[in-house]
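debug: dumping io for the single-chain case to check the tokenizer round-trip. Nothing else runs in this session.
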Amino acid sequence: MDILSLMEVIIGFLWGPWTFFVLMGTGILFTIWTKFIQFRAVTHGVTVIRGVYDSPDDPGAINHFQALSAALSATVGLGNIGGVAMAIALGGPGSLFWMWVVGFLGMAIKTVEVTLALMYRNTDNPDDPHGGAMWVIDKTLGKHDDWRKVVGRILAYFFCCTLLISTMTGGNMFQSWNVGEILNVYFGVPQIATGIVLALVVGAVIIGGIKRIGDVAEKIVPLMCGMYILSGLAVLAINIDKIPSMFMLIIQSAFTPVAAGGAFVGVGVYAAFEMGLQRALFSNEAGQGSAPIAHSAAKTDEASREGVVAGLEPFIDTLMICTLTAMVILCTGTWNRSAIGEIKGPVAIVQSEGKAKLEAPTSVKSLPELPSWEKWQPGSQVFILADAADAKTGEKKRVKIYGAIKAGATAGQDHIEWGEVPAGAVLTKKANGQIDQSVFRNFVGASLTGHAFDRAFPGLGKWLVTAAALLFAISTMISWSYYGEQGIIFMFNGKGVLIYKGVFLLGALIAPVMISTDRELGILADFGTGWMLWANIPILLSMGYLAVNDLDGYFKKLKAGEFKAHRPINPFTKQ
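debug: decoded output
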């Protein structure tokens, strides 16, 4: 068993059916317990980030808006472009419905976990506080002098280990690979070159610590979100007649299977549910325990105040930006796009040495021509369709056989290298009984979203999504580097930070050349997220009542007018 297969087995446990029900239950519990804190987040939370209650005397390194920007720079990233594209490609339109559910419930989870982290953050140095689930455990269980202290230390270290796994996978390599992929698809930039540039840029920022990260984030996040949202709205504007039917399709697909069509291979209800939850959680990180680390650096003496600010993150990330991406992909017909043509030459599946092998042309000239803004080049991927029996149910299903263009020894010798053929697969046939040799351009992650924009405005995806992917990746990587750094600081009392940063940058450098398929990309994204969820959710469920009580007390004080406003109150919310 290779390393990827082993990781898939582990992911199968981490993301079993029980995971989804635990997460949904946690979100419902805190939503009811906090009296639907989501609505407070979009009213009082906005007031707080305007700086109404900011005081220079409060402990912390960055203001509320910078803390929100730093956390959003980690959540609003390639998960919103590449992750959503993966959800639609693998889970169908219905996955977006479940992303909405997770986004709404995630607002309550995020508020509680950040409030809890602020209550127990380490402020020994008021200008450079540290916080997160590890500090919560250390200052609750760890304060005892019996077996609870030992258990607390083990749990805190376990969380830090899962934090580092997630940092290196989803927070680093997933981002770097997506940028390398889209730059290669559109501009032919070698993936290793992308890795080097990203490592240099991210390295220049993270050396400066949280204050520099906060400064950079508050400039990048509004710019990249504004640019992306305006372009997405432009695409939806020219497809406005399709929007009502797309919303109906989303809701219908969340509860009924979606048949195969075009590039989409078909999916069942559970797959839509699974992909929606996985990608939404990967994107907004609710319950993962990462965002509290950034928010713990905020200048405030009220834990709940920052918690309410954090509740805005899933709203912005999932309910706004993820939805926009998904609607662009759906309205432009990218998710079930037609083939680009047929392979020029015979195609067949034959048995060789006990394995199924695809016999097909390997010349790049056998592929159909592309639009003027794209071209075939090393790294470009295609697939053809086949039929196979599901290993679990035995039912017939549509599968993909992938091919990738590999560089030849000299110019003009680039060739197609066809990948593994699923066991028992047979090539799809047309209505007349002839083998269907239709070939589809394969887009993975961010490049699928870029193609969706291109279908609306030819060439827009090439420039917009490339620029957005680059900015999103950089912002995510700098924030996640800080998260991992805090884990190192907790475990080793500040030692080894430089070594950690070196390893982090090395991961960014090599990721674009290590990953080649959407399967590998999905494994990388889900592995770290799954571990962190199982480390953090038990902490939230066992200690969340402390945060809920603090939130209740905070809003009673707010209603009584006990908080001094340093700027004018919002006349509409009165908060």
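debug: round-trip ok. The longest strand covers residues 396-406.
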